[in-house]
Structures are given as structure tokens and as C-alpha cells.
Amino acid sequence: TPAVTPHKSLVFLSTPRTDPVALLHDLNQDPWLSGSRTSRRRNAQVVTKAYVVEPGAVLSGNLQNTVDCQRAVATVQAQLAKLDPHACSFRIHAFPPSAQSRLLAAMEKSVVDDPIRLDPKQFTHILSMVQVYQYPGRGEGQDWIMTGVSPSFVPAASSHEDPEVEDDKLGAGDNAAVSRAYFKLQEALQRYQQDHNMTTTTTTTWNWTQAVALDCGSAPGGWTQYLAAELHCRHVYSVDPGALDPSVQDLPNVEHLAMKLQQAIPWIRQKQQQEEQQKAAKINVFVSDMCLHDMSSQVEFLLMARDCGILAPNTLFVLTLKCTTGYSQQSFDDQAQKVLDRLRSSSATRGTVLYHLFSNRQGERTLMGY
């Protein structure tokens, strides 16, 4: 039967598939699972967080019990034997979340002689320990614990309800993302490419290494970092009155415009006109993660840039629509749908879609097209 409730937020994956996020995308697109055939919540995410567990790693017990937490930790330690713990850092994902402190205490006691590095922000792997509840008709009264160790799949790990990782660097090493927003753009582009049968390096009319990008409201630089360092865009205009992280500011293909977007658009246009004899390239990637009072303003800025003449034909755009006021979830979805319908009715855009990404917060949607 179709699922009609919007409150389907967790899934435990026991699969050899190496990309949990791609699998969750598939689940969210299923019309019966998502309830899109019976619900008005057309753009809401069905699954917002995942726990990757290993087949066969099942214990009888309950994570509300300290002894059972110690048994779960011992199972995870056996799985860690496949890795070099000293070359890795780990984050614990516990369900229910109330078991987190007991599991941390059990982990600290069990690794006194050979400690592993636990880091909730800069981690290479995720330790999942979850309580599986039984329900009437399926062995009621028997509780199980499932465990698993998986490489970090950050877009799902940085879930909607994880605000503490917003401002600190994520990941490990010198290439750590300067903000959580980095993974939002990464997931958006990968999802769009997958849905539109594009390759990882090209769209229908351009390629990343020749792209000129405009990142609106960029500080501290997560999206700029992804465009410049990961996709190697030829040039990135990074627009924000605020400061960029030094690691982003120093990238050779980044030009920080410390001003508002309303000032930056005519500034870029003037630069393009001055360099016209040298065939200055117009912008063909327009992205914005700005927090605006009215979500329709994201579209207004896109159209302003187009009307000013700084955008090339078929410019790819990625816009975050954010609910900044106390509207209901249904009201927010309706507002986002109106913005989507407006762009779809415009002959100036194509391939327009609205996503609720794993990296979006609950009150965010990502609007894309070209």
C-alpha cells in the first residue's frame, strides 16, 4: 500500500552497494514509497537520514541497557579490524539518539589500551549502532541491535537536524570542506546529472573546466570551494560582503567581490564590456545559497543577472529556497512549488526541477535548471 504519512525519516541499509546516498535517492523517487500519488507533499524528502549496517551484525538486546551498549561496541570493534584505526577518524551514529552517550562511554572504556579517534566533525568513517524495534505480528517483544562501519557519506551524515556542523570544516585533511554547504552543492549537481543522463564533467552545452561561475552569498566559501577546487571552473566570482575562508580566498581561480549582489551584477557587466575585445566569457554557472526573506527573490536575482546580460545562453543555475518565517510545512511546499511553476512557464529556462536534498535542512529546497 502507498505510504501517505510525511514522517518517514529513517532507514537502515544492509547492502553491499557502495553509495548509500544514490540508493536513498532511488528510494525517494519511488512514487508509492514517497506517497506522491496520494499526498500534496510533492517535494518533501521521504528519507532524511541513513544508518549503514552490515549483514549478519545483529544482536539481541536494547541500547537503553548499558551492558547491551558494551556488546554493540564490541561488535563494532570486530568490524574495525578490517581498517587501520590509526589512519581513520570516526563519528558515531546512534539510534535512538538517546543511546549516544552510553555508546560513547562504552567505546571509551573498551579502547583504553588502543584508542581510536572519535571526531563528530572531521571524520573519515561512520560507526552506526541502531536499535531495531519489533511491532505486533512480527515477533513483538524481541529487540535487536544492528551495527556497521562505513566510509563517510557526508551528504546523508550532515542531515537536516545537524546544525552544529554548520560553521566548522568538515572532512579530514587539507581538503576539508569549509562549510556544510559544500556538500549541498555537490549533491545537487550529482543528482541533476544523474537524473538528466549527464556525465560527471559535462552538460549539454559546456564543461566544468571552461565554466565561469557566479556564487551569490558565498561566505565562508563552501560552494565557491566546490566550484573552484573540485570542479576546476576556469573562474569563479564569489560574491559576499563577508570574508571567505583563507583556503578559498587563496585559490587562483577565485575572485572575491566583497559587495552585495545588486552591486556585483553591474560590476561584472562592466568588466565583461571592457574585456569584450578579448572575448571575455559570460557566466554559465549561477549558484546562490543566500538566505533571503522572500524565497522568490532568488529567482528575481537570477532574472536580474540574465536581463543585465552577464549570463550566457543555457546557464546552469542552482538556487536554495529557504523558509525563514513561521509558515507551516505545507505552506512552504506550496510557496516553493509556485517558484518552480513560475520558472517552468518561462521560455528562458529548461530542465527546471525542485529537490529536497539530503543536505538540505527541513526548511530548504534546491531549485535547478538551465
The succession of helices and strands, N to C, reads EHHEEHEHEEEHHEHEHEHEHEHEE
Mean pLDDT: 78
Structural class label: alpha/beta
This entry's quaternary arrangement is single chain
| Number of continuous helical runs | 11
Radius of gyration, rounded? Answer: 23 Å
What are the segments in which pLDDT stays under 50 over at least 5 consecutive residues? 1-8, 37-42, 155-168, 200-205
Class of the largest domain in CATH? Answer: Alpha Beta
State the separation between the terminal residues, measured CA to CA. Answer: 37 Å
Architecture of the largest domain, CATH level 2? 3-Layer(aba) Sandwich
How many domain units? 2
Strand content of the residues, in percent? 15-25%
Q: Would you give the CATH topology of the largest domain?
A: Rossmann fold
Annotation, overall tally of beta strands: 14
Largest sheet: 7 strands, mixed
Provide the helix percentage.
Answer: 25-40%
CATH superfamily of the largest domain: Vaccinia Virus protein VP39
Overall 3D geometry? elongated
Spatial order of strands in the largest sheet: 10-9-8-11-12-14-13
Protein name: Ribosomal RNA methyltransferase FtsJ domain-containing protein
GO biological process, one term: methylation
GO molecular function, one term: methyltransferase activity
Pfam families: FtsJ
